[in-house]
């Protein structure tokens, strides 16, 4: 059990790049730029600052719109229809003709004429993104194999490229918003792909090996009922009627759950698993959410969303399942609202009915927004705590005696780590009253020129606080660099060849006293 929890925590840290880092980096950076240029406007009234600020703000808005599109792609008005994927794949492949000179596209379309049910334009966009990624993964020359096959019950499409591949530890993060293996990517393309595949009743599998290639395998059911993007028809259901909307959902709770399980094809098989991992009862929580929305209790909806966000983040549950589940709740709730309106006379006008429908949509959107915010904040706090731990371990000040401590430095020291070093050393000397600090550099493999200057300045600062500095294990490479820079530690600190020598000298002085 403890091992499973440890593995879950590791998955939490791994998956945070997607939401927490994406929100922090992709959105916060352009907004920070806007803030900076608005500050400049106060000082200098130049029109170009307005233009730059507007551009950055549009970038932030575009990122948020992409995230919303991933969260609810099925909100388009596009109808569900029969689709022959061989026909659609043929048309998509032709869009990449300019790449055929370097990438050989191999088509193996078996069993054409087998249909699935879904939203054609959404699926075409999803397959376009997959093919685009495949071409981009091949840096020079290579090949892409596209297979299509069908059985009595399902249709399978696979896209295999000979590109750079994806590290195994990153495979589980694919499809997460803001996670990407591209240098300038945002991860929104694959996030859209995964969401659309799930929303259209499919499943997606990824296999990859570095420097060999990646294969995406997508399965769709041929059963019209299992491709759940069609509207839920409740005409034949015997729903108990009441004048109050809340009571209507209470009385028909079992029918609601039944329709919800029909809608959420991919999630219904995961209900027990999610319950076991996070003690989250999806059906009970859906009922609770529906009642809060039906009564317009905004505060309860927001509070519930935040609680759910923390729970899903804490247990690293798949976001795609949450998105599908909430959108299924939305659709079934609309259908029940239609049946409630059909049998009751509470709504004196269409405006009144659509007003209630708008309220339901707004509250559902608020639930999604606060869920994602809460989810990302939890992940952000987790990675921040992890980073603080890493920073602390990167500057380990070890007490040797009451007045003497050792600081062994290992690995490369860049500007970021130098800042951490300055902060921790000065703070610790002031808090602990260290009189002698031994800084061992024998494990430092690389040190930038500007870092050497900062280390000299740090030693000056330490001496100002009345602390003596002893440097040990300075590597030959660092000495050569210092000679070229024309700087030295002479008159700055005592230098010893090894840490052992410094300790022996200190102990001998202590015994002599």
TrEMBL record:
Domain of life: Bacteria
Domain Histidine kinase, residue spans: 22-224
Keywords (A to Z) from UniProt: ATP-binding, Kinase, Nucleotide-binding, Phosphoprotein, Transferase, Two-component regulatory system
E.C. code: 2.7.13.3
Coiled coil: none
Positions of transmembrane segments: none
Organism whose genome encodes this protein: Paenibacillus nanensis
Reaction(s) catalysed (UniProt annotation): ATP + protein L-histidine = ADP + protein N-phospho-L-histidine
Protein name: histidine kinase
Alphabetized GO MF terms: ATP binding; phosphorelay sensor kinase activity
Domain STAS positions: 394-506
